Each structure stands twice: as C-alpha cells, then as structure tokens.
Amino acid sequence: MRQLLLPVLLAGAAAACQDAAAPRDDHAAALATQAARLDLRHERTALIAAGNAVSDAIASRGVAAGLGAALAPKAILLSPRVNIIQGKPAAAAFLASDPLRPRALDWHIIVADVSSDGSQGFTWGEGSSTYDFGTGAAPRPSFVLIYWRRLNDAWKIAAININAGGPQTAPIPAGFGTPDTRTGLSFPNSDPAEQRERLLSRDRAFSTASVIRGSGPAFERFAAPNAIGVSGTFVFGPHDLGAAFASEPGDVISWIPRLSDVAGSGDLGFTVGEATFQLVQFGTFYSKYLTVWQKLEPGGWKYVADFGSSRPAP
User: Fold this and answer.
1) Which of 5, 144, 198, 260 sits at a 20 to 30 Å CA gap from 157?
2) Which of 92-96, 122-126, 173-177, 295-299 bottoms out in mean pLDDT, i.e. has the lowest?
C-alpha cells in the first residue's frame, strides 16, 4: 500500500532516505578504504600462526585448557557422536569432563584464507585426534576445520569441527591452497543481519537441490571452483565433490542450517546445521556440519569448505 501515499509524503520520505543514506555511504567508503589498505597475505600468515599456536597450546596444556582458551564467547563446537555445542561455557564443560570428549588433539594448518576486511577467516588443519568411544582411547588421523573471528586484535575460534580424515599424503593441488592475492572481493554495503539470513537461505536451497536432484549434483552445483570437502581424504573442486558425494537411487540426503555468521565485508561466512541421511541400503543416520561460504559476486555464495561429523539420533 506504499504507492497510495500522498506525493508530498513520498517526497518527504525520499528526502529522509537520502539524508539517512549518507552516513551508510560514508561507512561503506571507509570500509572499502580499510580493506584496500590491508595486505591479505600478511593476514593469512598471521591466521596460520594463530592456528598452529592453538595446537601448540593443546600440546603443552591439554585439550580443555589449550583449546578452551582459544574459543570465542559464542563459539560452536562440533565433535563426533554429540550434538552441536553452543557457547564457550558449554564447550569448556564438554572438553573438561564429557566421556566423548577428545582426549588428545593436534594439527598443523595447511590451508587458510581471510575475509577482505581481515575480520574473519578459516583454516584447514591436518593432524590426529584421540577419542575413547568405549573400546579404549585410540589416536586416528584427523582433519580440523575452523572458522575464526578477530576479537580485540586476536584470532578466536567461532566454529570448529573435528573428525577423522586423512592422512593427506598428496600435495594440495594448485589453486586449492592458501591464496597469495593481496586483496579480495568486498561488498561494503552488505547488512550483516541480512547477509546471515541470506546465507541460511542459500544453505537451505543447497539442501533442497540435494533432495530434488540428488546430493552429487547439488554438491557440484553449489561448490566454488576452489572448494574442498572430505571423503576419507580431501576432495577438490566441484566435479570431484559431486562424484564423491553422489547418492544412490532412492537415497534422500537433506539438512537444516541452524546458525550462521558473515564478515562485515560481506564476502566470507559460515553455516552450521544438522543433516539426515536416509539411505536405501544402510538405513538412516545423522550428522552435523560446518560449511564455509565465499561470495564470488553479488548474490553468488558458493561453499569453499565443508566438513561433517556424526550426531545422535533425535
């Protein structure tokens, strides 16, 4: 019904919008200038150092203290056989005493990237994790996918997923490692709340495509050119991801994104959610996941990293 307003009111509203837009435009220009001054090569190097320092802290102080100190206040922890753990207090309690907690954990960072404003980033780590699932504690090769947020000029873990995988014996192919570009794409007019919702919507569309078209075509279609997933070891690129995650006729693989965040520059974000696998041959089982997304163009969110772990039946 907005088109029924009197012209004078429309004119007044338009003038008010123009006045209100000026600070936003100034803010966008300031963000763009800040992003242009950043050398993302240095930011990625700092993030890799921070990620490896957390592994060193775990080695010297133990998992609960070493990993716990690196968690952001609203950190999300994904670990095998448990549900999504939200918040630093809940994660710290789990790491300290839960029977299904990781008893030992180490990694070295092999891939990293950051948002164009340097406020958020993600890393892939390769190493080992030790769990006791009722048959004694046993180390196993593992991958660790971490999404980071810079708080008070320090990198803190916003979301982390730990699960078995690897070892990655083959070198990371060209185009899939840590980028060496100085700058990145930036979308400074992005509204963070709106972008978080858009990212959840994008992930929901990803799930719908999996149900309708099959998981293989969906994983291929929604992948960025440099996307990495895990099927035993790393899987690189849309074509191979589609092949690795192809489902059989009659299988239904779906998920519900629960949580998201997006950098202020509007080019990097993550979703966390819960997946259900209804497989004709093997029955139904459940997982959770951390997916990192990158905007390649306006509205063009594609995933660049995806990693899951098991969860109990609802």
Assistant:
1) 198
2) 295-299
